[in-house]
């Protein structure tokens, strides 16, 4: 459902790029669709984490393995995410600083 909302949002964004009147009209709709998709994804993630914790506490078979796999996946995705974020922030800061850096002689 979140994927469908994301695709629909991109279609609306493509249509709104045709004119500023369309963008002004569709901007709020696109924003609410994106917020809805984020809420759906967060709900799925939280419900799966709650189920994993419940299974772990009740010692269901495979719960520890699933927990380790989730932790491995999270650690493998967070490290590159942080690196890309830091690089992007530095790139944007230096780019913007160089745009507005007026050297007076």
Automatic annotation (TrEMBL):
Alphabetical keyword list: Membrane, Transmembrane, Transmembrane helix
Transmembrane segments annotated in the record for this chain: 29-50, 70-92
Name of the protein: PAS domain-containing sensor histidine kinase
Organism: marine metagenome
